[in-house]
Design brief:
- The chain is 16% helix and 36% strand.
- It is an alpha+beta fold and 783 residues long.
- The protein has 4 domains: 47-60 and 468-564, Sandwich (Immunoglobulin-like); 65-103 and 585-696, Jelly Rolls (Sandwich); 253-461, no CATH class; 700-781, Sandwich (Immunoglobulin-like).
- The strands form 10 sheets. Strands 4, 6, 7, 8, 29, 30, 31, 32, 33, 34 and 35 form an 11-stranded mixed sheet that branches. Strands 14-18-17-16-15-19-20 form a 7-stranded antiparallel sheet.
- Strand 7 (96-102) and strand 8 (107-111) form a beta hairpin.
- Helix 11 (341-352) packs across helix 13 and helix 12 (365-371) packs across helix 13 (376-389).
- It is globular.
- The two termini are 42 Å apart.
């Protein structure tokens, strides 16, 4: 996938333990077959057109947290609690959930989108970590539509206790398309072997240790890894632990990029042979004499490579992961006991693939390793498989418009790592075959976007590691300025690898407000096509793209662009609003929170994976209203209806509602506003008889209480209690999954002021423990 002419930065540098020289500009004389290094080969010519002249001003929504309590007042409910229930569900587009409140028999029930999963799946969820429960439930909901939920649930039940989190994570975060692929299904037990191999090899690796947290019984367990690293700033070795998400996505997960996830071989496949082994086992053990990858037997005018070591044997030697030096290592260097792990892997890979690729291309590490030739596509796949086999987190990256792919390893952020082309390629020069660990790749070209994918297909842009950047703020609207959520922006950049024409650089999606902010490299012209599953293309001709800039971008510049769909006018969807009474025979206390989930198909992936990206800040946008039976039926039929307490978009709520009369009532949460954003809604309701609220101002009651104001908060919270004699207490703040995010001593009668800006948006719990009492209070932070 590398270019006809590839420029690497020419800097005089010293390679630690090896040599000191100046690297010349790399000139690749052999042209590559453009477009062949993709499972889905889509080469598209784009005609650039100017942005439409428009005065449309985007209308932005600000979802509210609904409440009808004044912050300085202490409400005391003086009536009888009849019943309380809770519920949670994912609302797909145009789905709703509701609490059914029937005053005639004083009952509550919860109505959610209809789906069924097996008892086996429910049992498996009960053994998975709590932090995976909701994602796993939704995956079983999808798998059940193909009668596969029992099969995958059984894998979790069959896994050893210490490996259940790895197995459950792969099932939760491997796409339905990958899991239901017939070739994968024939040996889905590879998910078990994938986890088992991690636990098999970790004790033999000196530079990495697994770190286990929590307990299986409490369901708060998770795993991560830490790495022995030489830190030049300290002149000493340290252990550096990676976040658990990095471990699960980029060490555990068996999908590397666009390839199919397979262990079973297909002898008729030209590009995706596995020889009957998952890549971890094959790379580590070289298990099959019929497909023995160690003999290389390549000889050219540049030299020869006879064989390479077995990878598993080699990787037991290094004592550290790396020394944090951004440098090059030359091709053909000896393996030494003093080499760090990344040096070893880069050297091994460059010897395994010493010459340029021959067709057909390969997308499976096993086939790449047996074929012993490659360009950047094969190089990057082999390094991704090898690093993850060696328990090193690596993400496969592409600068698509410059036609190059490579990798980055995680150590307090992503760090460039690749070996660069075949060291024995006759057309290559002295830089061919190097292990390149220079910051930003040290390329001489200008990158536009540098895109990688989580293994479920969600794209990540890391251009800030590879270029000086500018910022784009793009709003996508209808003809009235109403936001178009979940629109996919396909970004093009020029000049590209082979000409001054634009080429695709990456993809990104608008948020619920139809807005997206992204970074892009300097010295480029940028274009955009927009696609929405409901509204189609903008421009309507999908062979054209709008200019975002028709001039070269400038570092640190900010470009604000609004792009309307002139053929779309979004109809306002709102009921006739009715007024609630202040008191009633019955009422409810209702609390809820929403978290949005972006879903889309990754077109670049060979399996067309559909991802589900849960909002990192635990916020969402769901409509809410209360109505009677007649109007609920009208709502379901999408007819005009009347309702109480309607809110177009709410992030959550804490409401006390007096029911307007007897009979059946529906407290409804609806996701009718969105196509590409699902909503995860958690809620609780209490049914109250003789509903009446009285107010006592300005002070806490005599009942021991914890008062948090404001709630919700954005800048700060004030915490006050009325424990006996202002007793000293331990203060802890927990997030929504029970992790302690702050703790301190509370030893004063004055309010405890806490900076809320240090926490992301979401639901939190304040826990106060004294020798006499324990108090707790939920609060919400919104940004």
């Amino acid at each position: 996938m590398k270019k006809n002419i590839i420029f690497l930065a020419v800097i005089c540098f010293f390679v630690f333990n090896y040599f000191a020289n100046s690297q010349q500009i790399i000139k690749v004389e052999k042209a590559e077959q453009k477009g062949t290094a993709s499972v889905n080969k889509e080469i598209k010519s784009i005609e650039a057109i100017p942005l439409p002249a428009t005065q449309i001003k985007p209308n932005y929504y600000k979802p509210r947290f609904l409440k009808n309590k004044m912050e300085i007042l202490n409400y005391i409910q003086e009536n009888e609690l009849i019943e309380s229930i809770s519920g949670k569900t994912i609302l797909q587009d145009n789905e709703y959930s509701a609490y059914i409140i029937d005053t005639r028999d004083e009952s509550l029930s919860y109505l959610s989108p209809a789906f069924t999963i097996s008892e086996t799946a429910k049992e498996a969820i009960g053994e998975a970590p709590l932090w995976l429960e909701d994602q796993l439930l939704y995956k079983f909901r999808l798998l059940a539509t193909r009668n596969l939920d029992v099969d995958y649930a059984q894998l979790i039940l069959d896994a050893p206790i210490e490996q259940k989190d790895e197995v459950a994570f792969v099932i939760a975060y491997m796409s339905l398309q990958s899991l239901s692929d017939s070739r994968f299904l024939s040996d889905k037990e590879m998910i078990l072997r994938n986890a088992a191999h991690i636990y098999k090899v970790d004790d033999s690796l000196q530079y990495v240790e697994k770190v286990e947290y929590g307990s299986f019984e409490a369901r708060d367990y998770y795993t991560t890894t830490k790495y022995r690293i030489f830190d030049p700033s300290l002149n000493d070795t340290i252990w550096s632990e990676v976040p658990k998400e990095i471990y699960y996505f980029y060490v555990v997960h068996p999908k590397l990029d666009q390839e199919g996830v397979y262990a079973k071989d297909n002898v008729n496949s030209k590009e995706q042979r596995t020889y009957g082994y998952e890549w971890r086992h094959y790379i580590w053990s070289n298990p099959d004499p019929n497909y023995n990858y160690q003999p290389v037997n390549v000889k050219t005018s540049k030299g020869s490579v006879d064989s390479i070591p077995r990878f598993g044997e080699l990787m037991q030697q290094p004592k550290i992961l790396w020394d944090r030096r951004r440098t090059y290592f030359p091709f053909g260097r000896p393996f030494l006991p003093s080499n760090h792990a990344l040096d070893m892997i880069g050297n091994w890979g460059s010897l395994a693939l010493p010459v340029d690729v021959t067709l057909p291309r390969s997308f499976q590490p096993n086939q790449i390793l047996m074929k012993h030739d490659g360009m950047c596509n094969e190089d990057a796949f082999l390094m991704a498989g090898a690093c993850r086999t060696a328990l090193i987190p690596l993400i496969y990256l592409g600068t698509w418009s410059m036609d190059h792919v490579f990798g980055a390893i995680y150590d307090e952020g992503w760090n460039h790592f690749e070996f660069f082309r075949g060291g024995l390629a006759p057309s290559g020069n002295s830089a061919y075959g190097i292990t390149n660990m220079m910051e930003g790749g040290s390329y001489g070209w200008d990158d536009a976007l540098v895109e990688g994918f989580r293994p479920d297909g969600y794209p990540i842009n890391l251009i800030e590691n590879y270029a000086e950047t500018c910022t784009f703020n793009v709003s996508v609207t209808d003809t009235l300025g109403n936001p178009i959520e979940g629109a996919k922006l396909i970004i093009y950049a020029a000049p590209s690898a082979y000409s001054s024409n634009p080429d695709q650089a990456g993809t990104i999606w608008t948020d619920f407000n139809g807005k997206v902010t992204f970074l892009a490299g300097e010295k480029k012209q940028y274009l955009v096509q927009i696609y929405h599953p409901k509204y189609g293309w903008a421009p309507q001709d999908s062979t054209k793209a709008f200019y975002l800039t028709n001039f070269n971008s400038t570092a640190n510049a900010v470009y604000n662009v609004t792009i309307p769909y002139f053929n779309v006018k979004i109809a306002e969807y709102s009921p006739e609003l009715l007024t609630l009474p202040e008191t009633a025979e019955y009422g409810v206390n209702l609390q809820w929170s929403a978290r949005d989930i972006l879903t889309a198909e990754n077109k670049r992936d060979g399996q067309r994976s559909r991802f589900y990206k849960w909002n990192d800040e635990n916020t969402g946008e769901v409509s809410f209203f209360l109505c009677d039976s007649v109007n609920f039926e009208k709502f379901k039929k999408k007819e005009e209806f009347s309702a109480y307490s309607y809110e177009h978009l709410s992030v959550g709520g804490d409401l006390q509602i007096a029911l307007p009369g007897s009979g059946k009532w529906f407290a409804v949460f609806s996701n009718h506003n969105f196509t590409s954003y699902y909503q995860f809604v958690e809620s609780k309701i209490e049914l109250i008889k003789d509903f009446k609220i009285s107010v006592k101002e300005n002070s806490l009651s005599e009942i021991p209480q914890l008062l948090i104001t404001p709630n919700p908060a954005s800048d700060y919270i004030s915490i006050k209690h009325n424990l006996e004699n202002n007793a000293a207490a331990d203060l802890k703040i927990l997030n929504s999954i029970g992790e302690v995010v702050f703790e301190s001593k509370f030893e004063s009668s004055s309010p405890f002021i806490l900076d809320a800006k240090q926490f992301p948006s979401g639901i939190y719990y304040c826990i106060l423990k004294s020798a006499q009492r324990n108090l707790s209070q939920k609060f919400i932070i919104t940004k």
